[in-house]
Amino acid sequence: MLFTLSELAAATGGDIRNSDAEGISEIVIDSRNVPEGALFVAIKGDRHDGHDFAADAVDTGASLAMVSTGKAEEFGNLPMLVVEDPLEGLRQIAHAARMRSHARIIAVTGSVGKTSTKEALLTMLSGFGKVHASIKSYNNHWGVPLMLANLPADAQFGVFEMGMSHEGEITPLTALVQPHVAMITSIAPAHLGELGSMEAIARAKSEIFLGLQPHGAAIINADHAFERQLVASAHEAGARMVLTYGFEQGNVRISDYKSTETGARARFELDGEPFDISIAATGRHMMANAVGAALVTLPLELPLPAAVAHLTKFAAPDGRGIAVEFAQDGRVLTLLDESYNANPTSMRAALGVFAERPSAGRRVLVLGDMLELGSQSSALHRGLLDLIIEGQPDYLLLVGSEMAGLQPLLDKKGIRADTALDVNVAGDKLKGQLDYGDLVMLKGSNGVGLSKLVTQIRRQFDQ
To answer: Which fold has domain 101-313?
Structure first.
């Protein structure tokens, strides 16, 4: 049981109606997937009002629905927790979950690598005890409270991802989570169109340190120009321990990176002692995420050698570099799925992985627009030209207006490219381009919809 009904009422100041249930098993906001005994929270969003789905949620298994006082009379005898505002009620339950918890809490943000680092932490910490971690990319003003509200009372570790597109968004999230360790995985031109400058991005990410527990720790990737700014912000927020890491900078330096048949390996040094690390994911960026996760053991006083051993199981999440193989008659089609998101830093990292990956057949590269880059968008897309050429694609498909704009520039350099302004046209053009033995990578911002092409490939080759 996650919470008793009396605990929910006490946390929210709400009124329980029409229910004799003892408690709830889980808290959800999606009426399409309601576990038996859950609490459904009727959040009003930009496109949908959860109140429209509250009755359906109860019909499919929820013990009760948390609804607003202004809507309660519409539901008759529906089992309800009636509050002034369901989103605020969710935050209050999240606060109650945090206050009762004895778990060691880690919060993660960054322009690139948030979800992958969260997954590395989940993999590693699961070797030490019970871990509760954010699912998917539930990292915004409702996702973080939802994940925190579901923190089990007996969890030993909690890992929470935090995202933002404007300054000030992370501050209330980290204040709610109150982490013992706060991590920043990268500073890159994501949401540049909204924030206006890299300095503003770094400033917004550093808000995560404001929620640190007294004597908490900050762990910072240093392979960018804002290391000093972030370190200073961590100290100003009261961090007792500040660790930086990276290939080029940081007090923990990563070296000897090599791709392997099953992933990658590297070495890092801590206080002069070398540690060899292997992971089941490819790319220098994924290795950096794993090393950052390993350093969490220091403030949590966990054995680092054991953590490195646990990280051998760390693999890329779906849509973030996961490699999927489809075999027939001894020939293997390898799909590198980078369809979830893209900014200049993650795009360059993915193109580097594609360039170093061998292929028995054709090399197929599908690139979608990088969104939310503002006035610098065209220049940042043009900055990818050399890396695209280094990948030596046999078939190159550019999806979206910014990527399509690279076609004449690539043509001048001897690289032929096909273009499509939307993913549906791209899907038609991709049909017939792939065969067993080929290597294909898809990379673009989530809004471009390249995940539809991933689904198309999987349906075609997954036997």
So the answer is: UDP-N-acetylmuramoyl-L-alanine:D-glutamate ligase (3.40.1190)
